Amino acid sequence: MHPRIEDYALIGDQQTAALVSTDGSVDWLCLPRFDSAACFAKLLGDEDNGHWRIAPVGAERCTRRAYRRDTLVLDTEWETGDGAVRVTDFMPQRDRAPDLVRVVEGLRGEVTVHSALRLRFDYGSIVPWVRRSDGHRVAVAGPDSAWLRSEPEVRSWGEDFGTHAQFTLAEGEKVAFVLTWHPSHEPRPPLIDPYEALEHSVEDWRAWAAHCRYDGPHRDAVVRSLITLKALTYRPTGGIVAAATTSLPEEPGGIRNWDYRFCWLRDSTLTLGALLSAGYLQEAEAWRDWLLRAVAGDPADLQIMYGLAGERRLGEFELPWLSGFAGASPVRVGNDAVNQLQLDVYGEVMDSLSLARLAGMRPQPQMWELQCALMDFLAGAWRQPDEGLWEVRGGRRQFVHSKVMTWVAADRAVRTVEEHPELGGDVDTWRALREEVHREVCEKGYDPVRNTFTQSYGSAELDASLLLIPRVGFLPADDPRVVGTVDAVGEELTRDGLVRRYSTEGTPVDGLPGGEGTFLVCSFWYADALHATGRTRRARELFERLTGLANDVGLLAEEYDPVAGRQLGNFPQAFSHIGLVNTALALYGDAGAG
């Protein structure tokens, strides 16, 4: 039986991440970066595509598992007829090389444990050459090299193109396995002490989590979401990937399978808001600085997403040797949406940098110059149709959200000059742009008969992004048009109380066959909008339900299927966890944030 998306837990070292299943198998790991080729790709194929399972002989799913409090250290336990055993998985912050550490400990009785390691480089397509060296197993193929060792050393052998070990542990006995990657042309990196690394990892994560200022209801869920965002941060640059995975399907067996191991600009405003409100100024500054580096250059060349260090070429291709998660193919690497025109990102960048300035972050001298250049471009380009924030592949339209975010860009530019007149700028042009865009959206993007804004000019369709209209300040929350839009989204886009992005029936705007689940971040937006329009009790009830959709270790994917009761899409999804943090702060922040 194929694992479910919610069967996985995340571990990582803030440069890459691994997914560990409830059966004790590491089924996904890209080395050395989030966007590198996977050496364990069973997640998107089968055992022959690479995995590493440690579990009691004959056991299947674990008895229980949990993160150690306020950490990214995962404990997985099995109760057997012979006793109990625990596997502790983590990735320590690296010095030079990434390490995956798995500590096996006997808890009760005597339990025989089996380790089966199948390394498959290049997304499961390359079987490495494996040899012994100084008591280690060394796997090499092309540019990749991985070293496996255990402390104390246990007997291992090769079988079926894998490395196996079997040993028996009594109560209190431990064996630590360390898998270390490095470029094959370089010497082996220094060895780490796995037990010291475990102690330091626990201390480091708890020290970081202690900075969280939120102390209201659901604090554990908020802290877990913040830890997840930190784990999805590429520490060398400050960029935050949208998810740790590629091609986890938005519909069981479907084709809506995309690569999310990149950094989206539109996440920036919500990310900054969540980090700043929770007390993480350093991480917010790192993200702001990544943003400035990534978008530098010709404003006409602004992309919607970038690589971890600001790379621009993220071309999309398929991996035909992988069957896909539970048969959902194709498996894709890269993302062609990088070439789309999405005008809303200009508003998101302007809003992010405005927020950074208001928060008192250390100023960057080139920031205002860049913002002025972005506004000059947007003033001449905003009337164009675009692909919109959902990256539709069914043709460009005059999306209302894109126009609203154009208004946001002009509004933030005007407000910045009003608050800091020494900066200067073409404020009269920006004021005129703000007024013109506002007038046009209210005329062409609003349906007075149904009392709702629509997905695009002249369309009868709705879109969950319309829920953001009061949040960004385009109209006040008590405006009848806002209330009508919130009600219309609730009536037409909800499925079992959760919100879809837009309708996929008939001829969908995205130009793709099939459907998708409800979008978790859109459901958080709906809770925010209910609260803003005076329906706080309903908003809190929805928030309670949404937090309850997280898996047993508190993680959320991109989507949820309320009929099957299953998570869908890439996992864990930064946008979903950003939504959780921001909604908690909106609902309980006055009493819960110090």
Give an account of the 3D structure.
The chain is of the alpha+beta class and 594 residues long. 31% of the residues lie in helices and 22% in strands. It has a 15-stranded antiparallel beta sheet that branches. Strands 26-27-28 form a 3-stranded antiparallel beta sheet. It has a two-stranded antiparallel ribbon with strand order 16-17.
Query: What proportion strand?
Result: 15-25%
Largest β sheet strand count, sense and barrel closure: 15 strands, antiparallel
Sequence stretches where pLDDT stays below 50 over 5 or more residues: none
Q: Round the Cα radius of gyration to an integer and report it.
A: 25 Å
Q: Please estimate the helix content.
A: 25-40%
Gross geometry? globular
SSE class? alpha+beta
Average pLDDT rating: 94
**What is the count of DSSP helices, taking H or I runs of 4+ residues?**
13
Would you count the extended β strands for me? Answer: 28
**Distance linking N and C termini:** 46 Å
